[in-house]
Design brief:
This protein has three domains: 133 residues, Beta Barrel (OB fold (Dihydrolipoamide Acetyltransferase, E2P)); 131 residues, Beta Barrel (OB fold (Dihydrolipoamide Acetyltransferase, E2P)); 309 residues, Endonuclease/exonuclease/phosphatase (Deoxyribonuclease I, Chain A). It is an alpha+beta fold. The chain has twelve helices and 30 strands.
Length: 598
């Protein structure tokens, strides 16, 4: 552990630290001097009432923070708590020399200047001619705290203090787990507001309430890419993960305020319970059922020319492509779908060696026969680096009509051109038209203010473009672009819009029926600690009536990003132990699948 605390130090280490401190700070007279209690320095407001003033104070050294760095710091706790819930009882001491020489458990007298550092009250510019050790004492018990907090300023009253959480806390984000040793927790699974509520005021209120529930846990180290990775029971490996939805028990630590907000530097590693275990493969379908799936394959690029690597978006080496392909194929094979829509495939043609045919070939090798074929439109699907695509199991369905691509309107820029193909289901003889779509993302906001700027209603940037795409998609499909007329139609893909946002509402208002049960909470993506659904499937009324099951297969979004195919920022050992050619973390989006019975 990188934080030294009174209860974690070996007795010999404590004795050595105290002896060194007594030698360096033998200013016994200071122990007789008057001082200001730490709670008085903190005050009852967001900022100390004595900012900029030089003061003398005395307190218990609660912990040495960042003990593995060149700039350790101390937390000093009040000797006489004032029993006022509005004032914190601890203060940060930034003197790294002092921190290196002083052990937790020491009663320390200091003189310094009070500052606010990123909102954290701290004692700076300490004058070591006044520093003195005035004895030692036992550690206090950590203060029990529960989530959610009552107000936004609740943490201010606890900054610097040793806290414990009697409740189990739910993992909500592991994006910086392997890089910085951080994990976002809350008292519940946090949701994208517009997944649950209408954009605007109600969504804003929903999100504001959620912010009272979350807290970032920090391993207490300033070392990047820590090894072993903290918080994971028995250590991170390809078969040992920390998933969003898992539980951490016995959380204790020291509350700091930083540029990134409040965080808890854990004083001991909490207990990890795998309460959201990895899902097994989707259930087997019957021969009478038609399974259709959609999968964002996260920039499956094979490159171009004699020097294809690094690719523009995907694998940066041939080895990485091999790893990416193996994970992707494992996921596709396990879904056992008859028609699969693909997103973020490199737009480098339909010939041998192109990304699409490479993936189809690898999938067929995995399943042991030339089971799958690619839908091949006559028109190139736009000029973007990525495209949507479609593959099908030739024994289960037969393409009829033409593969149609819409290139104009909102699909000429931003949203990728959609692809539609009609199929005859071999078993039932019924015809189904399938459309795969990828709407404009929320990122890379327009430089000039426009209707596509972030309207601060929860829908992010380019919402206007996505609404236009939804409208145009519906109008296009009404014309039967494949040349085949059928009551059975389904559109699916990455709409880059959450369930209650306008693009999805536009399609539903046009008569498309969402296949996810409205009473259930679905998720296919995790972003900044919020889970939501960007990947949807909507069907015509006639096809919706034939639905047997619908699900997102949660193999990706809940997993730590570091378990993907990439090899950067990993030791040779980690490149092996963190990787497996399995479906888990094959992409950043979860695939979806649906079964119909005619």
């Amino acid at each position: 552990m990188r934080i030294r605390t009174m209860r974690k130090l070996h007795p010999v280490a404590i004795a050595v630290a105290i002896a060194a401190c007594t030698s360096a700070f033998a200013n016994a007279d200071s122990c007789q001097r008057p001082y200001v209690e730490i709670n008085k320095l903190q005050g009852a407001t967001a900022e100390s009432p004595v900012v900029g003033q030089t003061v003398e104070t005395r307190g218990l050294v609660l912990a040495t923070l960042y003990a593995d760095s060149k700039t350790p710091q101390l937390l000093l706790q009040s000797l006489q708590p004032d029993l006022n819930d509005q004032t914190a009882e601890a203060i940060l001491v930034t003197d790294s020399v002092l921190a290196q020489k002083t052990a937790p458990g020491t009663i320390l007298h200091l003189r310094g200047t009070v500052r606010e550092i990123n909102g954290m009250t701290a004692l700076t510019n300490t004058d070591n001619s006044f520093a003195a050790t005035c004895g030692k004492t036992t550690a206090p018990e950590p203060v029990p705290v529960k989530l959610p907090r009552q107000t936004n300023d609740s943490w201010e009253r606890l900054e610097g203090m040793w806290l414990s959480f009697p409740q189990p806390l739910i993992v909500n984000d592991t994006y910086t787990l392997a890089r910085f040793g951080e994990v976002l927790v809350a008292d519940k699974r946090l949701r994208v507001a517009t997944e649950i509520e209408q954009p605007g005021k109600t969504a804003s209120q929903f999100e504001a309430a959620q912010q009272l529930s979350e807290l970032m846990l920090d391993d207490g180290s300033q070392i990047q890419n820590p090894d072993p990775v903290p918080f994971v029971a028995d250590g991170l490996a390809a078969n040992r993960t920390l998933r969003v939805g898992d539980t951490l028990r016995g959380v204790q630590g020291f509350l700091l305020q930083t540029k990134q907000g409040y965080r808890l530097l854990v004083s001991q590693m909490p207990t990890h319970d795998a309460t959201n275990p990895r899902p097994s493969a989707p259930p087997a379908k019957t021969q009478q059922e038609l399974r259709i799936a959609s999968f964002n394959v996260l920039n499956f690029f094979t490159g171009e020319g004699k020097n294809p690597f690094p690719t523009k978006r995907g694998a940066s080496s041939a080895d990485e492509l091999t790893r990416q392909q193996a994970k992707m194929v494992a996921a596709l094979a396990a879904m056992d779908a008859d028609v699969i829509g693909l997103l973020e495939v490199q737009n480098n043609g339909f010939e041998k060696g192109g990304a699409l045919q490479t993936l189809v070939k690898a999938l067929n090798q995995q399943v042991g026969s030339d089971m799958y074929q690619a839908v091949l439109p006559k028109e190139k699907p736009g000029t973007d680096d990525i495209m949507v695509a479609m593959i099908y199991r030739s024994a289960a369905v037969k393409p009829v009509g033409q593969a149609a691509v819409k290139l104009d309107g909102p699909f000429s820029k931003g949203s990728r051109p959609p692809l539609a193909q009609s199929f005859v289901h071999t078993t039932s003889g019924q015809t189904v038209t399938v459309g795969i779509n990828h709407f404009k993302s929320k990122g890379s906001c327009p430089k000039e203010p426009s209707a596509d700027s972030d309207q601060q209603d929860g829908q992010g940037c380019w919402n206007g473009a996505r609404v236009a795409a939804a409208t145009a998609l519906n109008q296009w499909l009404v014309t039967n672009p494949t040349g085949v007329s059928t009551d059975y139609q389904v559109i699916m893909g990455d709409f880059n819009a959450y369930r209650k946002e306008q693009p999805i509402q536009t399609l539903e208002q046009a008569g498309w029926q969402h296949l996810a049960n409205a009473t259930e909470v679905h998720s296919s993506f995790v972003f900044k600690g919020r889970s939501g659904t960007l990947d949807h499937a909507l069907a015509s009324k006639a096809l919706h009536a034939k639905l047997q099951r619908f699900a997102h297969w949660s193999i990706n979004a809940d997993e730590p990003e570091v378990l993907d195919y990439n090899m950067e920022h990993k030791t040779p050992e980690q490149q092996q132990t963190w990787y497996a050619p399995t479906p888990y973390r094959s992409s950043d989006h979860d695939p979806l699948y649906m079964d119909f019975k005619f």
